[in-house]
Amino acid sequence: MRASLLQIDVNDDESVASRRRRVADLVRDQAGVDLVVLPELWTTGAFAYEEFAAQAEPLRGPTHEAMSKAASDAGVWLHAGSIPEGAEGGTGSAAEGALYNTSLVYSPAGELVASYRKIHRFGFDQGEAVLMGAGTELVTVELPETVVGVATCYDLRFPELFRGLVDAGAQTFVLPAGWPERRRAHWTLLARARAVENQAYVLACGTAGTHAGVPQAGHSIVVDPWGEVLAEAGPGEEVLTVDLDPAKVAVTREQFPALKDRLLGLDTPAR
After folding, report:
1. Residue 3 in contact with residue 36, Cβ under 8 Å?
2. Which end of the chain is more exposed for a tag (fewer CB within 10 A), N or C?
3. Which keywords belong to this entry (predicted)?
4. Does residue 269 lie in a domain region?
């Protein structure tokens, strides 16, 4: 199974429409690959909070149209990163339940087969955390070669979400992000930790460039079920392509069956 992570340069000098066209062409260039992954909020930038409402679009809006056609043209499974999802026919506020950080997944026929509203919103009571509503559902997608569990950026810090995805059958985690450069060490550490503890592949695709004054980490990374880094991008825009062996997940879980020793439902000690 061959996967390509498209580490897109997101900067304030390029219009959303122009970047959408450029990224669609990059997806088409991946014909022959099985799975293509884009970053989080690559249309607007993950830290461009003031643009969320202005650039919000319905699930089947302009980004959907462009990505659906690009996936079909290339004949690839496409995790199209995420968009600021607004209510059909308009935008709104998180309080109205109308804005979400929503990932889109397409089949090689261009069909929208799954969407995931980001559960853990970043910002500590500001930014995304107050501007967007929280998702409530775990999402998996069955590809011919593997079962993909979908997560987004800040979700990476919450291992219980990934345990839930494993319980739902996930063998490969796909995580688009807009991760800042100043916390790049955490990015690499947490991606490897999620792979090791769940004995699963991690495909984590970030952005390059600087948007809303926040330099991005880049360094998209692919980690195998033993925690070994198979490929890592640099800081700039880059296409990171890697071959995966989906059977390695089952082999790892059989040879080192740590997941069978999980203890669930432990009582909280009295204080």
Report:
1. yes
2. C
3. Hydrolase
4. no
Q: Report the alpha-carbon distance of residue 218 to residue 103 in Å, rounded.
A: 19
What is the distance between the alpha carbons of residues 191 and 187, in angstroms, rounded to a whole number? 6
Residue 265 lies in a domain: no
- Tell me the two tokens of residue 131: 């501007």
Contacts of 53 (CB under 8 A, 6+ apart): 84, 86, 91, 92, 93, 99, 131
Residues with catalytic roles: 40, 118, 153
Give me 136's structure tokens: 């409530």
Domain, as residue range, for 95: 2-259
| 12-44 pLDDT, tens digit each | 999 999 999 999 999 999 999 999 999 999 999
Distance between CA atoms of 29 and 129, rounded to whole angstroms?
A: 35
